Amino acid sequence: MTKDNHRQKFPALANKAYFNYGGQGPLPEPALEAIYEAYKRVQLGGPFSGEVGAWVVQEAMLTRRAIASELTVPPETIALTEDVTVGCNIALWGIDWKAGDHLLLSDCEHPGIVASVMELQRRFNIEVSICPLAATLNEGDPVAVIANSLRPNTRLLVISHILWNTGQVLPLAEIVKVCHQTGAKVLVDAAQSVGVLPLNLIESGVDFYAFTGHKWWCGPEGLGGLYVSAEALADLHPVFIGWRGIVTDANAKVLGWKSGSQRYEIATSAYPLYGGLRSAIALQHEWGTIEERYAEICRLSKYLWERLSELPDVECLRTSAPEAGLVSFRLTNGMPHKKLVDLLEKQGIMVRTILNPDCVRACVHYFTTEAEIDKFVGAIANQLV
After folding, report:
1. 244 near 265, Cβ under 8 Å?
2. pTM value?
C-alpha cells in the first residue's frame, strides 16, 4: 500500500500536519467502523445476554492474541487494561513491599508514575532513589548508570523503554540482565515503544511491560495492556480485583485467580474498543512489517532532525540522529516554547511542549511525509525571523 493511500484511511490527517503520535495517534477509519459495528452488535444482541457474553469472551481472547503477537509473547501473559498508567500501577502496587525495600526510578519518567512511586514510599516506607539517565542522551552508558545505582535491597527498577521527553531508546535486554543479577525486577513504561520498536519481550527478559493502544498503534483511547512474565506472575498480587480475574465454582464461591495475567483484569469495560484496536494493528501490517515501519520512522526522524538542525535558533536535544520517532528541540532566541506551539497549531501543525527538560517535542510516524516535515520546519523558520 502506498503511503498516500494509507494516509487516506486516517480522517485526522486530512487537514493538518500531525506530529503528536507520542500523545495520541489518529484513529483510522476501519477502526472507527469496527468500534461502531461492535457497539451496534451489542445493542442488537442485548447488552447483557448470553450471546453478547460469549462474544465478549471471544473478543477479549482475540485481542490478547493480537497484542501478544506484536510483543512476541504468549497470550496468557497479557492483561487488558485502560492505559499505560493503569498497567504500571498494577505492577507497582502488586508487589508485597516491606519497609526498607528499595525502588530505583530514572529521572526521565512520566509524572503519573513518579506520583505513584511517591505514594508507595509514603505508605510502605520504602527507599526510593533516582538514577540520572537524562545525562546519557548523547554520551555515557545507561546500563552502567543503572548498575551503579542498584543496591542489595533493590526490588524494582522503573524505566521507560523510549524516554518520553527526549526520545532516547534504552538497551532493555542489557538493563534487565544487570538487574536480574542482583535480584531486582524491571517494570517498563512502554508508552512510546509499543507500535514503534520491533519487540520480543521473552528475549528481553523484562518482568512487567505496560503499554497503550492509543499512541503509536493509533487505536482507540481507553484500551491498553500489561505484560507480566511467567516468572514474575507468582509474586505479583492482584490489587484491583473483579469478576474477570477470578475463578468461581458452580455456587459462585471464589476459588482463586485466573491462571495467567488475566487475573489483573477487573470487570466491565468498553468491549467494542477491542475490535477497534485489532483493526488499527492490522492496518499497520498492510503498509509493512514492524521492521519496515521502524526503519521508516528512523529515516523520517533523521530527516526532521537534520532540517531542524539547519535553523539558526533551534537546538535539537540529541547531537546525533534519533533512534525512534520522538524529536525534541529547544529554541535559543528566547521565544517561549508554548508560544511557538500555539502559533503552529493555528496553522494546523500539531506538536507539544515538554516541561522537563524545557523543549518542544515533535513525533513522526512511518506514514509521516517529507512534505509535512518541510511545512513544519518552514513554519518554525518563519516564526523565528
Report:
1. yes
2. 0.97
Find all residues with CB under 8 Å of 18, minimum gap 6, and list them. Answer: 12, 26, 350, 372
- Residue range 48-63: mean pLDDT, rounded: 97
Q: At what angle do helices 290-309 and 272-287 cross, to 10 degrees?
A: 80
The residues near 64 (Cβ < 8 Å, ≥ 6 apart) are 75, 76, 78, 80, 225, 262
Residue type, 303: Y
Beta-bridge partners for 246: 257
Long-range (24+ apart) CB contacts under 8 A made by 146-149 are 146/104, 146/106, 146/175, 146/178, 146/179, 147/178, 149/104
pLDDT in tens, 10-22: 999 998 999 999 9
Q: Tell me how far apart the alpha carbons of residues 21 and 327 are, in angstroms, rounded to a whole number.
A: 11
Beta strand pairing call for 185-189 and 208-212: parallel
The full 3-state SS of 218-233, as one line of letters, equals CCCCCCEEEEECHHHH
Name, in order, each residue with C-beta under 8 angstroms of 382's C-beta and a sequence gap of 6 or more.
none
pLDDT in tens, 101-117: 999 999 999 999 999 99
